[in-house]
């Protein structure tokens, strides 16, 4: 897919990985970036920074955990590219089973239900515009069978991966490809702060974070490649990108 001139809606784009993805799409690929986030001040600043670097961008306040907010967001943006990046809640206790249902349920809404709804709502507009592409941003928290400190976050990201893998038929029905990138720990501003707060011993034992630019590169690679649909790409530090085998 050629990305230049296409409208790319990126959720959770006020800061961190979402901002890096939006910047890459607008400045590096010539797309028109629509940055969606609940943080209006930072989101508007991120859009201005993209425009200062020569890209085209605008900010759209939206809460992907709110169904009506997702409907307004997709209708306003009318994207031919959708990057479901918004997420979080995996590092903030309490977690299941100590958290109340509305607390762990909010994590599912933010990390899974919002992406599912945004994808569903974007299908018809994308088909009417001649097709499109969706990239879901999951996490390695959703891979494997080992215990995880935030069960609701791990379950949501695992659900996002499996959700993606079931959507191959959308390419024939709507002309829309849906893929997923699954990064390990990303070197966001929060990750930098966590590293700085560690002792030298803790820092040496911590996993190597993945630069945000690598995640943005992977998103662009999935958007560009028309041969890929319903595929899941895993990013591990120091290792090449890996597409999961569909039968894994």
Question: Can you walk me through this structure?
Answer:
β1 (7-11), α1 and β2 form a beta-alpha-beta unit. The chain contains 9 helices and 8 strands. Helices cover 46% and strands 17% of the residues. It has helices at residues 16-28, 40-52, 67-77, 101-128, 151-165, 170-174, 189-197, 200-205, 212-224; strands at 7-11, 32-37, 56-61, 81-84, 132-137, 176-183, 232-235, 242-243. It has a single domain, classed as Rossmann fold, CATH 3.40.50. Strands 3-2-1-4-5-6-7-8 form an 8-stranded mixed sheet, sandwiched between helices. The chain is globular. The mean pLDDT is 94. The relative contact order is 0.14.
Summarize the entry for a quick read:
The chain is α/β, with parallel strands linked by helices and 248 residues long. It contains 9 helices and 8 strands. The protein is globular, with a radius of gyration of 17 Å.
Topology (SSEs and partners):
Elements: E1 7-11, H1 16-28, E2 32-37, H2 40-52, E3 56-61, H3 67-77, E4 81-84, H4 101-128, E5 132-137, H5 151-165, H6 170-174, E6 176-183, H7 189-197, H8 200-205, H9 212-224, E7 232-235, E8 242-243
Parallel strand pairs: 1-2, 1-4, 2-3, 4-5, 5-6, 6-7
Antiparallel strand pairs: 7-8
Could you describe the largest sheet, including whether it forms a barrel? 8 strands, mixed
Q: Which geometry do the CA atoms define?
A: globular
What gap, in angstroms, lies between the N and C termini? Answer: 27 Å
Strand content: 15-25%
Question: What name goes with the CATH superfamily?
Answer: NAD(P)-binding Rossmann-like Domain
**Secondary-structure element series:** EHEHEHEHEHHEHHHEE
Structural class: alpha/beta
The count of helical stretches stands at 9
What is the C-level CATH assignment? Alpha Beta
Overall tally of domains:
1
- Computed over alpha carbons, the radius of gyration is 17 Å
Counted beta strands:
8
**Overall CATH architecture:** 3-Layer(aba) Sandwich
């Amino acid at each position: 897919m050629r990305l230049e001139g296409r409208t790319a809606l990126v959720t959770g784009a006020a800061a961190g990985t979402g901002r890096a993805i939006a910047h890459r799409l607008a400045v590096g690929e010539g797309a028109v970036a629509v940055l969606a986030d609940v943080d209006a001040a930072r989101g508007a600043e991120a859009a201005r920074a993209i425009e200062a670097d020569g890209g085209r961008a605008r900010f759209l306040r939206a809460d992907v955990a709110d169904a009506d907010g997702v409907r307004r967001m997709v209708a306003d943006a009318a994207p031919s590219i959708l990057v479901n990046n918004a997420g979080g809640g995996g590092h903030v206790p309490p977690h299941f089973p100590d958290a109340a249902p509305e607390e762990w349920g909010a994590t599912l809404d933010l990390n899974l239900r919002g992406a599912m709804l945004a994808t569903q709502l974007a299908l018809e507009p994308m088909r009417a515009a001649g097709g499109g592409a969706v990239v879901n941003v999951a996490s390695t928290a959703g891979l494997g069978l080992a215990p995880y400190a935030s069960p609701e976050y791990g379950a949501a990201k695992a659900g996002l991966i499996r959700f993606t893998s079931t959507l191959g038929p959308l390419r024939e029905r709507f002309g829309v490809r849906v893929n997923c990138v699954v990064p390990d720990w990303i070197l966001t501003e929060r990750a930098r702060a966590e590293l700085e707060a560690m002792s030298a011993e803790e820092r040496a034992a911590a996993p190597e974070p993945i630069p945000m630019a690598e995640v943005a590169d992977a998103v662009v690679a999935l958007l560009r490649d028309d041969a890929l649909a319903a595929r899941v790409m895993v990013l591990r530090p120091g290792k090449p990108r890996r597409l999961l085998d569909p039968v894994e």
